[in-house]
Structures
1.
Amino acid sequence: MPELPEVEVVRQGLAAHVVGRTVSDVQLTGARVARRHAAGPDDLAARVRHTQVVDARRRGKYLWLVLAGPAGDRSALLLHLGMSGQLLVQPADAPDERHLHARFDFADDGPQLRFVDQRTFGGMALAELDADGIPDSISHIAPDPFEPVYDRRAVIERLKARHSAVKRGLLDQGVVSGVGNIYADEALWRAQVHGGRASDSLTRPVLGRVLDHAREVMGEALAQGGTSFDALYVNVNGASGYFDRSLAAYGQEGRPCPRCGTPIRREAFMNRSSFSCPRCQPATRAPKF
DNA sequence: CTTTTCTCCTGTATGC
DNA sequence: TGCATACAGGAGAAAA
């Protein structure tokens, strides 16, 4: 599942292979891929056609291409990979992928950009950029830990004020963005905090440690993901394939905790799974888990 | 207002 | 072998 590190690798691929090129044609298959674009897929395609891609940017798990129109006007093609979305750079004569939803042709007749998504949780929409260069439609998404505007103290205060499990706060993209289920579990394992513990019951230093570990583990994953980048394949499909061997808790049910050897446990959480060490991350005072 | 639950989707794995 | 079910889960809408 693409979380911040995987999305950043995709962004870097777009920066290398798409920025600077002019779109000559856009083909969208079905309405679902553009469902967040209120004016519909035809409108999106028409507005992207003949624009030049001038930048590829990211906040959390969202990424966007900054588009310059013929008159120099700026807009953004906002993209989200959802759970299974891939952006591929492919030769025009490559056969259609099984779950191909969008195809971009360029005026240089070079390789196409394709959006492929099996589970269709991903999608794209056009947005306007605000004064800070952020698409207006994601103004509710908080900065991620790698942004200069990331305010560590402010995030700690928001977590400190929440009557909810700390893991919910980590996963709330309006509090801090980029963290998904995998890196939330890894950060909590590193911080030796059980994700079900009430956010407002933890001390500020502990909350700070959880946040710092989230940033640290995502940074490590990014460093590894960058090395496996293939020039023709602007995609990283989740943590599998490169960083999964470094995971201490996520998906490791029954395997020994790398720190103390106690078998990692799996618990239901938000109709999903959480993995933690029963010994290093005691679930004391854990409501609503 | 804050917090939680539900829903969208399909390939893969598991159980009977 | 075939069919049913569980699971993966980001994010926004809806509900509590």
2.
Amino acid sequence: MKKRVLILWDETQYMVKAEKLLHQLVTEAGFDDDDYELVKVPMPKGKKYGKREIPQLTAWAAERIETHKCKYVVAMGSNAYQAVTGQTGIKKARGKPVEHGKCILLPMYHPNMVVHDPGNLPILEADFQCLNNVLEFGGIPEERDLDFVIVDTWGKVNQMLRALRGCVSSDLETSRLYPFTTVLDDKIERGIKLTQAEEDQYRATHCEGKKSRSLQSLLPRVISIQFATAFKQWIIPAETAGIWSRRELEQIVEQVTEKLEDCYLVGHNWKFDALWMRVRFGVDWKADFDTMLAHYILDENDNHGLKYLAQKFLGAPDWDVAGDVKTSWSMKNAKYAAHDVYYTRKLRYYFAKQLKCDSEVKKVFDEILMPCVHLFTEAEFDGVYVDQAKFGEAEAYLREEVAKATAELDKWAHPEWAEVDKATGKPTINWGSPKQLARLLFEDLEIEVVERTKTGAPSCSESVLLRIDHEMVGALLKWRAAQKQLSSFIEGWKPYIDLKGYLHPSFKLHGTVTGRLSCEHPNLQQVPRDKRIRSLITAPEGWELIEADLSQIELRIAAELADETAMLEAFRSGVDVHWLTAIREIERGAGYKDEVIDTAYRYDQKKRNYSDAIELLLKIGPDIAAELNEFWKETRKKAKAINFGYLFGMWWKKFKIYARDNYGVHITDEQAQESRKAFFALYGKLPKWHDRQRRFARMNGYVRSLSGRKRRLPEAMNGRDTPDRREAERQAINSPVQSFANELNLMSAIQLRREYPRAQVRLAGTVHDACLVYARKAKVSEVYTRILQIMSSPALLTEFEIDLKVPIEAEAKIGPWGAGVNLEKWLKAQKEAA
DNA sequence: TCGGGGGGCGCG
DNA sequence: AAAGCGCGCCCCCCGA
């Protein structure tokens, strides 16, 4: 009897399991044995098919398809896919039915993928659902559920307004990703011609390579605003379509805003759309459910793109269109837009159901992630203010530094070594090129190679340069430092500074696997601590910048999780744990006798023996010790790195390298091993906690932070002790700490926003364990005091039923970032100024 | 001409 | 055997 579907796949190592699984999938999808024919493709001679095998293979496949006379062909796995099409790339092709000669081909992953990782099951299920759709439709299905309306008359506006109730999804198409008007946008808008350099920079920032687009079309514009309701999708042509006037558009937006108040609003990466609506229309659309963040909290390891998710979970087709279709108004664009909202709305039901299965994860989503959408929409909208005068000064200074260093370095660009520049006839070396530099140092100058990179090239990193005895090293390091600051933070910021001098860094709530946020355009979280750069970020007129950070928060959380007696005791009694580590380490080796006894003597002019002096140092803490002797400043910094390194699984070999690079201390292997042992002797419960985490991850394939957030670590379940598994185990230790530290910070930011109106207090951004906040001048004292209270015990902790043994402490500074002072000093300065 | 990888380095 | 974690961005370089 003739079968409808031909399934091609290949022989693999877990064939029994795979076959069982396939049978199960096929049955669940509603097929019986008469529906399909299962055929194995010939195995490649080696691991993969060779180039010469391909024509033979495709001929074989074509013949099989011909003899079976099936209209539908399923190719499972890359080999089967290659057999049919001659092409590689199953990852991109899977789940999308295509016409192949006389038949319809549906590529899928091999069932083995699920045998290897059961988490992939939904992908295959969705693909079989897709196969069903294809059979039912009798070809490649159009989206029959899709029913979109172009809202281009007042009649349709009214229809739409009536339909906007219950669960509504929304989405925007925009001309580019960055919504704010920059200096160059303003020039274009006003018809001022850009210089070539300006145009290049502008395109590099906004164009993503598409050189053909006119500058006009790159201005920040909303192309369309769309909604999906139960049965229809409503596409409102917006700023560039020329269908509605500005005034009419604003009128429509206003009426929609009113209706949305009573809707359950769903978005995918809603912060993006909310920000655009705020910037372009001044309205505040709050979402109740973000499908991207829902999927992020459900699987932090996966991608979170809308199309990807719709294909993976809903068996949707690939509705992607070329880039230029998305950035200008057209019917194609409207159809694309309709897909976006349609599937966003569908995904919300799917993910809401998934979230219900894990109430702990759901809580993080509801209480932290969703509130952050609104919080960070506002923060990004406001942005951070850049001191324009100081910015110019810093730029001039850095250019001078780079020029000086370059002049110094160019002495070494001898004609017989360096490439000769054709234009100037002078030998040049690009000091930013590791390759050219390596040639100069290790070939021409015949310096011995110190270290190699993982690809085998001689390394030119700072740590290597410091070990090279050559007079150009100093200039080289100066050049790098100045060049880095200039390119990353001066030139790097320029394209993003808006007309009023603000930067609007974009925070990705889904940016990391641990639950931290990432930040880009520009990245506020990597601004150097060097005051020259950091203090460029400051408060605008009438406001003050307050930076409040959680003190040693990761260490505190580790102490809590490990129930580490000595650490908890130190935190309770106010001893600085980095200091404790440092002093005990010194004591162990009976080192720095002179400094220890001398500093103790300077403190109160009393003579002490070594061990009494040690105890005194421990008591007075690093700050006072540093005042008595500069030496202790370095000591504490060193111990900080030791704490974090050992805490999260650093091995003694790395510690040895660390000590050498950062402190110029050359220790022996034995000393390094001894140091590690001593650390774990001092904090005896840490290894037990490490073991607990490793075991749990190995058993369950995930760990949770105190808030309940999951970090999925499938590699931890590997049967064998592989490097991958080791990595997962270290993450099992680090993740809950990093994750919860960040959550405490976010809980505080959320609460601060709830307690103060925007007219008084605004969040400017977060940096992992710190909040950057703008407060009205008149409110500074109050906010300063309150934020410290909030951070040391945010109300959401109670909501999460978390009761910490370890005390949480915060500290705050007022003033330009990185150059602020405490409240006392600030008040004094205010008084003097008045 | 682009996209991606590598090297290097800024932050927590 | 091999052993801190998490990011983004700059520049160079090379292959498609």
